[in-house]
Each structure stands twice: as C-alpha cells, then as structure tokens.
Known about the structure:
This protein is α/β, with parallel strands linked by helices. It folds into three domains: 3-110, no CATH class; 143-197, Alpha-Beta Plaits (2-Layer Sandwich), CATH 3.30.70; 200-401, Rossmann fold. The chain is built from 19 helices and twelve strands. The strands form two sheets. Strands 5, 6, 7, 8, 9, 10, 11 and 12 form an eight-stranded mixed β-sheet that branches. A four-stranded antiparallel β-sheet has the order 2-3-1-4. α15 links the parallel β6 (241-243) and β7 (266-268). α1 packs across α3 (40-55) and α13 crosses α14 (226-234). It is globular, with a radius of gyration of 23 Å. The relative contact order is 0.10. The mean pLDDT is 95.
Amino acid sequence: MQKGAQYQAVLELISEIFKNKEPADSIINTYLRGRKYIGSKDRKIITETVWEIIRHRRRLEFDAGSCEPRCMLLYFLRHEDFDVLCSDSPYALSPLSREEREWLKTENEQPYPAAVEAETPDWLYAKIKDMNLLKALNEQASADLRINAYTREVMIKKLQKEGFFFSPTKYSPLGLRSSERVNLHNCVAYEEGEVEVQDEASQIASILADVRPEHKVIDYCCGAGGKTLTIAFLNDNRGRIDVHDINWGRLEAIKNRAERLKINNINIVKELTDKDYNRFIVDAPCSGSGTWRRAPDAKFRLTPKQLEELNKTQLEILETAYAHTRSGGRIVYFTCSILPDENENIIAAITARHPDLKPLNLRTLWEQKLNGAYPVSDDYRLHLNPRMSGTDGFFICVLQKI
C-alpha cells in the first residue's frame, strides 16, 4: 500500500472508534478481517498509528482545535508531504483544501490544560487528579505471562529457544515479563499450556485469595477465568473451584482454556444456592480504568452514569457474597480499577452495612505468600498500578466474615 492509502485506512478507523460506541480493538479487527488484501506490514503500520493517535487523542484535539477525525489526523501528519499522501483516488487521503493548508501553518501555543496533558476526559481527571499515574496508564503495557508448568527459570530458557525473551516479574513468583509486544500464536510453550497470558497484578490477586484444596470456593464473576485457572495451578488441580458468570459464553470459554492448561477441577455453577463458601471471590465488573494501558479508548467510552451503575452492581454482588459466605470465611474483592468509587468507597459501604465483615491484614498475607516487601502503606487495601508496581491498575481487599 502507498502511504496515502495507509493513512486513509487510519482515518476510516479513527472515524469509527471516536464515535465511542465499540472497543477499538474490535473495530480494528473487524476492519482488517474484511480487507484481506492488506498485507501484514501495512496492517502493522495502520494499527500502530491508530493506537498512537488514540493515546494522544486529547492533545490532538486541543492542538487541532477540532474533534473531527480528519483534522486530528492532518495535524498528526503535519510534517509529512501532503502532495505525496493525498490524491483524488478513493484509496488515499483526499487533497487538502486551501483552508486546511493555511490552518496547518499555524501552531497552537496555548499550554495544555491538566486533563489534556493527562490524556484523560475532564470528569475522570477531576476524580483521579494524579498526573503521573494517568501518564503511566497511557503508556504501552508490558507483556506478562504466568508459568503453568516447570519453574520460571526453566520456562525462561524454553521460551528463549523459541525466540521469546522474558525475565522474572518483580512480585509474583509465577510471572514472566517482556518489555516488547509478543505474538504467541506460534509459541509451542503457549500452545501446549505451559504458559498463560496474565498481568502480574492478576497473578498477585490469585495468590492473595489464599485458596487451599480443602476450601469450598467460588469465583463468582469469573469472566474468562484467569484467576480461577491460576488458583487451580497453585493447588496442583486439587480440590474443586466453582465458577459463575452472568455471561454464559464466558463460562464455555473457560472450558477451552482449562483443557489447554490441563486444569480439571473447575465446576460451572449457573445458579448459586450454597451458603457455606470458605472463599467467595468477587472479581467485580468495573470501569477497567486500571487497564487503560491496553485499552486507552475505554476511558472515552466510560460515562458518569455507567460508573454509577457499576457501583450499584458492585454493592449488589458483595451482598450476594455476604449471604453465601460462611462465618469465618472470606470475601475476596478485586477490581482492575484505580477509581476510589469502585474500590475503598465500596468496601466502606459494605462494611458499614455488615459490621461482622473485617478487612484482613494484607501485609501479613503478602509476606506469607509473596516474594519481597509489601509495596504500599495501607495494610488493608492494596492498590497496584503501573507507576508504583509496573502492573495494571488493580485493587485488592479481603474481608473476613466474623
């Protein structure tokens, strides 16, 4: 493809993505699947450009003085030769108008407002107000794996022989990390279930759930089952782990993942009736703000009303957890969010309703289960994020039912 055609594809993609209706990765995948003629090198250039523009969406809007995708793209390309990029062909960017040429000669010298510099919608910046954290959440994420066989040292050597270079994660004893993007489709170790994709924060959460083979446990909002599968690995397939999710399709997907990873102690529960769980794991539906490194478009699709609805759902799920956890058992609450609304505020609300729920000391649990020193000052509410721990944004709180 000519450069002009590549950027025309970029324009078509960001025009759809900036409607804030669907996830960007879904839009990109659908677009490329429908255009088999686009070669692999062109696909790489197109997708990397789209993600770069998404990560700098607010600054481009501010500098261009417009939220129109074409204006933002032209400003992004302002140092390119538009006589080469543009033509009357439907497969290239259309020629610049006289007004566009004059406009591109001007420079916006106004300083960025804080939310623009943080590449975050105004209302979210007002909630978070942490410039360094938001900038860290706008960087590209590392590639993290979890071992599912052997030791880390053995897996690092096996992966290296396949041309994949990983080092141990800082906190999780199960984790491997690459600073570069990794395509595992042709990775034998992955295909044979010896490693699994999982961010280090999620690995830590699974370990701190402190599930033992004799426990009666349920992963209630199990999603794709990542934490369930980690817990099963930690217990050498002993015991039984109940899983539940409102999305039945996700439950079916767990079966395939479990088969690849040689996990066989997972029990799908579609109706919750038992009330004597030792561990009731709530990986709560949330904003996903802690995963903005991987999905920077998500921050623009989130609305205050959606956040309010999520908070309501989070409390409802914790009420369910309370009703189905035995005395002496634990409710393990996770979110991949950095927002207090979904984290400490929810914990405060549920413990106010139920004084017999007491936060467990996570520092003590960490020192029992994990390598290294406990990384934060709050002993009862653990916040992880890319700035301080190099992981996704994550919140963990364990509530003991007295």
